[in-house]
Amino acid sequence: MGETRRAIEHYEQHLVIAHEVGDRRGEGTALGNLGASYKNLGEPHRAVDYHEKWLAVTREIGDRRAEAQALTNLGIECVTLGQTRRAIEYHEKALAIFREIGDRQHQGYAVNNLGLAYNVLGEPRRAIEYFEQRLVIAREIGDRQGEGKALCNMSLALDKLGEGSQAIAHAEAALKIYEEIEDPLAELVRKALEEWGNK
Question: pLDDT value at position 1?
Answer without folding.
Answer: 64
